[in-house]
């Protein structure tokens, strides 16, 4: 009998949230030397060198006491802006480069997605988050984006506090820093905050096609329900009805999604269909990211994974998030076939 995600009740303490801020298992071995630049995209090789230089400059000085440094003076560090911002489409290896920089840089250091960072602030509070992170030499932020006014005010202030304390920040995004928030909320009302934050970053462009699908076949077709159920019951993976899982995720804080799927061998979703609204869709994006981080294969019945988001969603302000999720889930669906 297969287990179900909806029957699990993951718990994560505040200390565990902080301690978990490191590259996900998929990128444990990520290094600059095993990033393979696309020879047709010279920006990729340039990005490797920019990231390597940035990471190698980090270090020296005190490894603690950042909170006091923020109050009484910024610690000395390498010349140049305190942040490095990797801008490019999904599937060009930005996360690999970010994880590589984290592995090279001297600690203490933290690594998390943008969502994990905002979840951390929600769990600890702004002041405590600043206190804990301001003693670090590096904060790496993957999938940086500003989705609403609250995020904008919170994150711009957090980055200002941390960089003033001497913390170096490396980030990846699909959107240039001064264009963050466009199409999602009245970003024009927050231009001062957004521009002040973007001025703290050197921007490095990473161009190219999605490597996850370069020269590879399309995702496998959805299975029928009986075949999917039989496959799930013959494995140690989970089997959930799609609509029930969507309802379950609504009551689970996204900071727990990673713990929810830790250690799973595969995830099977029965009756997949297009997300019924944007709230559901964004929760599915967060789940897809945590599954991809942990390289957990996915298999479905019902609609194809490419149909998870409606045409209206794919034309809206969260388009890049949805396309990234489809790209990652498609790669995970191939993993189950190839394993």
From TrEMBL:
GO terms for biological process: cell division. Gene3D superfamilies: P-loop containing nucleotide triphosphate hydrolases. GO terms for cellular component: cytoplasm. Keywords: ATP-binding, Cell cycle, Cell division, Nucleotide-binding. It comes from the Bacteria. SUPFAM superfamilies: P-loop containing nucleoside triphosphate hydrolases. GO terms for molecular function: ATP binding; ATP hydrolysis activity. PANTHER family: AFG1-LIKE ATPASE, ATPASE N2B. This is Cell division protein ZapE.
């Amino acid at each position: 009998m297969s287990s179900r995600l909806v029957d699990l009740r993951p718990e994560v303490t505040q200390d565990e949230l902080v301690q978990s801020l490191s590259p996900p298992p998929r990128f444990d071995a990520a290094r600059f030397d095993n990033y393979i630049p696309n020879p047709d995209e010279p920006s990729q090789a340039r990005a490797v060198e920019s990231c390597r230089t940035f990471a190698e400059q980090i270090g020296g000085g005190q490894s603690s006491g950042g909170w006091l440094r923020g109050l009484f003076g910024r610690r000395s560090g390498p010349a140049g802006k305190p942040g490095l911002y990797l801008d490019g489409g999904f599937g060009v290896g930005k996360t690999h480069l970010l994880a590589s920089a984290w592995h090279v840089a001297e600690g203490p250091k933290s690594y998390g997605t943008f969502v994990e960072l905002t979840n951390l602030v929600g769990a600890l509070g702004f002041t405590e988050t600043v206190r804990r992170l301001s003693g670090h030499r590096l904060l790496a932020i993957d999938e940086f984006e500003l989705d609403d006014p609250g995020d904008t005010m919170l994150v711009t202030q957090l980055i200002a506090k941390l960089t003033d304390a001497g913390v170096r920040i490396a980030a990846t995004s699909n959107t240039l820093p001064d264009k963050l928030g466009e199409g999602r909320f009245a970003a024009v009302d927050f231009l001062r905050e957004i521009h002040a934050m973007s001025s703290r970053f050197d921007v490095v462009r990473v161009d190219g096609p999605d490597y996850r699908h370069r020269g590879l076949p399309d995702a496998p077709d959805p299975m029928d329900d009986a075949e999917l159920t039989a496959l799930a019951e013959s494995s140690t993976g989970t089997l959930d009805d799609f609509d029930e899982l969507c309802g379950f995720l609504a009551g689970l804080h996204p900071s727990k999604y990673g713990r929810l799927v830790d250690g799973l061998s595969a995830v099977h979703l029965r009756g997949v269909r297009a997300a019924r609204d944007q709230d559901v869709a964004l929760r599915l994006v967060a789940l897809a990211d945590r599954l991809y981080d942990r390289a957990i294969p996915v298999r479905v019945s019902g609609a194809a994974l490419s149909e998870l988001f409606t045409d209206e969603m794919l034309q809206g302000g969260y388009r890049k998030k949805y396309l990234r999720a489809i790209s990652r889930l498609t790669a995970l669906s191939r993993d189950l076939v190839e394993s």
